[in-house]
């Protein structure tokens, strides 16, 4: 087994540098502005979260089911999966855009494309038009997501970086809460707008992000890498030192970025560089584990097919289905935000282990209860699945929510960051596409017995985490 270094108890290096900021972030104007930009960038994951609960809500909605011919099996799977197909083809273009044009242009492009896709889906007259809208949304989401996660990490003050990165994916649930309660609110509308309005709202977050990005500066790292160090220095001084012309922390940040970029230019930053050294190959292994595990650990079936899972447990009332969907979204946001605050205190590796082991135990119990309900029936047995779904999702929120994006970012050096994150998103989208297509087919064919597949994958992921994941806490 690979040895794992214990996290250091000493303060991080930057804590010893003189810095023209207040020790309390909200009392400091520069850090308040920095935090505001971070909150804007959190909208990058709004679409992903919105999509998860939005589709759960629609599957509980008789109007949507009737309009599209009660899709089940492979047809329902394709509706879910087609959003993730585009990135499988355009991943190199995403990396090129983020690296060559900049983080902000990638965000603007992504927001524009998502908005167009949301309008097409909202006014769909049949499944083909719905597919097209979702494909366009998926393509745009690739650009905005990579742009946001890179820019967030590269403009954030070192004191705020770990918690800010950890909170990025937890805001997935802000979109999830919005969509779940919008679909709950329109559930009893006796018109097509009961599902068209929630579909149209996919464009809401991206439209806000598009405007807000005009006020966010470009990545200092990107500016330095593209021969504009003066602009980078000015941005770092403004955000990290309240405009001080000479600041030890900013000077050291500039030196570190320039030195790292120079070293990385010497070693190259091609796609082959992802595999050029043992360290990079291990980084890629970690990225692939997180990318596939974030869906193949069993959460995908609860995220996108909660309504069919609940129906297997005997819960069929549309209002109850939509209410559970909404309540789960609120619960997830609460647990994920608490977990994000533990990242520095507890460390990344312990959170990964507890999260995955807890999910394994939760799935074992869900499988047993679902099997008992299928064999013997009984409303009480079926209802027992509901708290277990919350508990299992709660364990997912301990690490897989706050760390799925921040942990890969932490292990990637700047020269391969955009390419590494593009590989991460490409692999994640492939996993999602496969998962979303297969899940409804398998649920229809073998019902609750399909959960045994996820018991096996959770054992595999827990083993890989114990073997390969290292602590990155300072």
Question: Can you characterise this structure?
Answer:
It is a single chain. The protein is mostly helical and 474 residues long. It has one domain (23-216, 268-468): Up-down Bundle (Growth Hormone, Chain: A), CATH 1.20.1250. Helix content is 75%, strand content 0%. The chain has 25 helices and no strands. It has helices spanning 29-41, 46-59, 62-67, 73-81, 86-101, 103-122, 127-155, 158-170, 172-186, 193-200, 204-212, 220-225, 229-241, 248-267, 278-296, 299-304, 306-312, 318-340, 343-346, 348-376, 379-383, 385-403, 406-411, 417-446, 451-468. Helix 1 crosses helix 13 (229-241), helix 5 runs parallel beside helix 7 and helix 6 (103-122) packs antiparallel against helix 10. Mean pLDDT is 84; it is low at 1-8.
Distance between the termini: 23 Å
- How helix-rich are the residues, as a percent range? over 70%
Unreliable stretches (pLDDT < 50, length at least 5) are 1-8
H/E order of the elements? HHHHHHHHHHHHHHHHHHHHHHHHH
| Integer tally of domains | 1
How would you describe the shape?
globular
CATH classification class: Mainly Alpha
Can you tell me the CATH superfamily? MFS general substrate transporter like domains
Broad structural category: mainly alpha
Radius of gyration: 22 Å
Quaternary structure classification: single chain
Q: How much beta, percentage-wise?
A: under 5%
Main beta-sheet annotation: none
Total beta strand runs = 0
Q: What is the count of DSSP helices, taking H or I runs of 4+ residues?
A: 25
């Amino acid at each position: 087994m690979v040895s794992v270094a214990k996290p250091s108890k000493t303060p991080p290096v930057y804590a010893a540098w003189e810095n023209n900021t207040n020790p309390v972030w909200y009392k400091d104007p520069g850090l308040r502005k920095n935090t505001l930009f971070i909150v804007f960038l959190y909208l990058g994951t709004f679409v992903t979260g919105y999509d998860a609960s939005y589709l759960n809500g629609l599957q509980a909605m008789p109007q949507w089911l009737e309009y599209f011919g009660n899709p089940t099996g492979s047809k329902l799977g394709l509706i879910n999966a087609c959003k993730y197909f585009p990135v499988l083809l355009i991943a190199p273009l995403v990396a090129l855009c983020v690296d060559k044009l900049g983080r902000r242009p990638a965000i603007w492009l992504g927001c524009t494309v998502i908005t167009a896709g949301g309008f097409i889906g909202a006014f769909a007259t049949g499944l083909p038009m719905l597919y097209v809208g979702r494909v366009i949304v998926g393509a745009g989401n690739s650009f905005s997501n990579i742009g946001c996660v890179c820019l967030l990490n590269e403009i954030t003050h070192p004191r705020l970086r770990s918690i800010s990165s950890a909170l990025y994916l937890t805001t997935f649930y802000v979109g999830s809460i919005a969509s779940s309660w919008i679909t709950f609110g329109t559930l009893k509308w006796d018109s097509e707008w009961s599902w068209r309005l929630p579909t149209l709202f996919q464009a809401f977050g991206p439209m806000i992000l598009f405007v807000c990005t005009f006020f966010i500066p470009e990545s200092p790292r990107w500016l330095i890498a593209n021969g504009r160090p003066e602009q980078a220095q000015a941005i770092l001084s403004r955000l990290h030192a309240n405009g001080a012309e000479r600041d030890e922390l900013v000077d050291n940040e500039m030196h570190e970025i320039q030195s790292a970029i120079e070293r990385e230019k010497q070693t190259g930053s091609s796609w082959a560089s992802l595999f050029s050294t043992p360290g990079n190959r291990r980084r890629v292994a970690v990225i692939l584990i997180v990318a596939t595990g974030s869906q193949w650990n069993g959460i995908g079936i609860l995220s996108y097919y909660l309504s069919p899972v609940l129906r297997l447990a005997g819960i069929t009332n549309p209002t109850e289905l939509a209410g559970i969907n909404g309540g789960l979204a609120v619960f997830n946001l609460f647990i994920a935000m608490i977990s994000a605050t533990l990242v520095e205190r507890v460390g990344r590796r312990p959170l990964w282990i507890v999260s995955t082991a807890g999910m394994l135990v939760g799935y074992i119990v869900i499988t047993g209860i679902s099997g008992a309900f299928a064999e013997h029936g009984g409303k009480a047995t079926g209802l027992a699945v509901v708290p277990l779904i919350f508990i299992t999702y709660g364990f997912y929120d301990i690490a897989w929510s706050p760390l799925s994006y921040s942990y890969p970012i932490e292990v990637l050096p700047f020269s391969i960051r955009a390419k590494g994150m593009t590989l991460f998103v490409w692999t994640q989208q492939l996993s999602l596409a496969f998962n979303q297509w297969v899940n409804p087919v398998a649920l229809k064919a073998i019902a609750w017995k399909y959960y045994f597949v996820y018991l096996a994958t959770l054992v595999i992921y827990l083993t890989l985490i114990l073997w390969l994941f290292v602590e990155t806490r300072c």
